[in-house]
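Case study 2.
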Amino acid sequence: MNNEKKLELLAPAGNFDCLKSAVSAGADAVYLGLETLNARRGAGNFSSEQLKEAARFARCEGVKTYLTLNTHISFRETGQAARALELAAEAGIEAVLITDPMFIELAGSFPELDFHFSTQAGIENSMGVQFASRAGIKRAVLARELSEEEIKAASRMDSVETEVFVQGAMCFCVSGRCLLSSWGGGRSGNRGTCTSPCRVLWKDSRGAEAPRLSMHDLSLIERPEEIKKAGVSCIKIEGRLKKPEWVYKTVQLFRRALDGEAEASIHNELSDYTGRKQTAGYFDGQRIKLCGGSGRISSEAGKDLENKEDSASGTEKGKEFFTVSVSTTNGKFEAEVRISEEEKEIIHLPLTAVKKAKRGVNAENIAYLLATQNYQNAEFAGIEFDEPERLYSKKTANSLADELSRIFHQRQKKAHDSTIRIPLRQQAKDTIKASQRNKENKFPLTREAKVNSVRADYPCAKQVAGSLYTFEQVVVENLELGKLSSLRKNWLAALPQVFYEDRIEYFKTLAEKARDNGITLEVNSWAGVEIALQAGAEFTAGPGLMILNHTAAKALKNLGAKEAMISIEADKKKIRELSEASPLPLSLTVCGFPCLGITRAKIDEKALEGQTLEDERGIRLKLEPSNENTILRSQDAYSILGSDERGIKVRRLCADLAGIKDPAKLKDAANRLRKGLPFTKKKSFQFNFQRNLT
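Prediction:
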């Protein structure tokens, strides 16, 4: 708990220019990402060598650097993820921001690094922070949706620092709980490629369009003292996709606020500069009027910034210009390719004598040939000859053009090669080593495969319980505390993916009753894991802790989980690779109406009751109230049943029917599944199964 320390000001560094801007504006620390495995893959980011240089630069300026590795990691990425930690340790990075459970398992291999839970990890209450302490996490970035009192409750532990966002764009959904972008095109917000579907127009059933899900920007620049008194250690500015000018100005304004300058005038200056409506709503416990406008408000500063951004995105951005100097005085053809003052390449070619003029080409012909070639992201700027009157063979000219194309193709490939090539310590190698398939993962996904596990909403499920008894397992959501003792032993009580401080005691009591009655819990957050562990209750990991790699499964197993769930986002290749190497029994959701997001923001649900929201890509949602949150439920059916992928073998094939609130419809769906029929007559969507999850 931070009572006496000054607040650390943490700034975004999407590239080296932004890093320099943040440092010069007064940041105490910066957070940045590699070219892969981070939640802002659209930023400029840093290569391996650039990361080392960035850390050296920041260290010389007395500024800390934190590396973001805050995405879901696939089976094939585990080696690179471990090497990213090795690189961070070598570069002198102070801490790494993580989401995937695999890093909990790897942390012991890198004692020189601190580990911070990213906001993607979904830490929204004090139980989540207690789990962070159990897992050896030094700091937790709290969910943006928390009020001042909830932040204070989560910041009471001395062993774990807390960090809160104070400025920048906000997602409509709780971080780490959104599948909208992935559902609409395979680009996952949980893997750094979000396409921002919450910023577009959404049409209701009456045809009225509005940017209903587009959030105002968060701004707490007037609240540093309240944040510090709440026990927070670090305030964070969002913006790794921003330009250096924006980073400098915003960091400078927060530095002035922390140094005691009048907040009101700074807030007005910040609002003018950022150009978007600002809100402190969640911090103040408000959940209404937080969204509904995606455009920027006009201001001279905002216009100036837009002009700078436009000029930076022109066709010359990132271009390399090169010149060529040809020497033949030593009886050899030698071409010096000058790329910069410090960088050059030498091309050696045979010098063939040209006996007949019509078979040769002159300097002007070669210059024209080179000017018409494609050099990837480079541009030919001229050529000089020490013997400009000489004739050269066509073969030599073509070979020169080919060699230049090869050089710049390799440079482009190298520039975009994000592979981390660094030796990995043995302990880390042992940790990520794949195990053999768990023997319980024996049910293949074939055309004849049948569902053996069903997820349902308890108020609906209890009315048609007889139709569910034949399934090997039933997971119920929204279970009433007093009904737990009446559950069958093969019925699991699911804790929600997102809950806040005021619900902790309720779920602690539920966990204790589950233990006493021999009922297994399904946990869907790190807070849920902590509640289950404290109660001594048996638990499995559900969709809120979905995984893509075997090391994450190992981490969950070592925490005590009996089963884990494969990410519903996964494509068939990633599913197969995980199923072949998981040390835990796995569940795979094969059909249903999935939850595509969870939000705490309130839009006019009453006016939209019973209606479907639809965006321009055809994503169709229904708003489903759930305690303090609202679930964004797909109105289109998902199913991979009937696929013939025998290499995919799991313990459970699951149907997610929690979105069905009508008992008659739930009974019909269950009966159809029991007979091996599609659970709905509606046309189904395969999500990312047949495409590539990015």
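Residues 320-415 form one domain.
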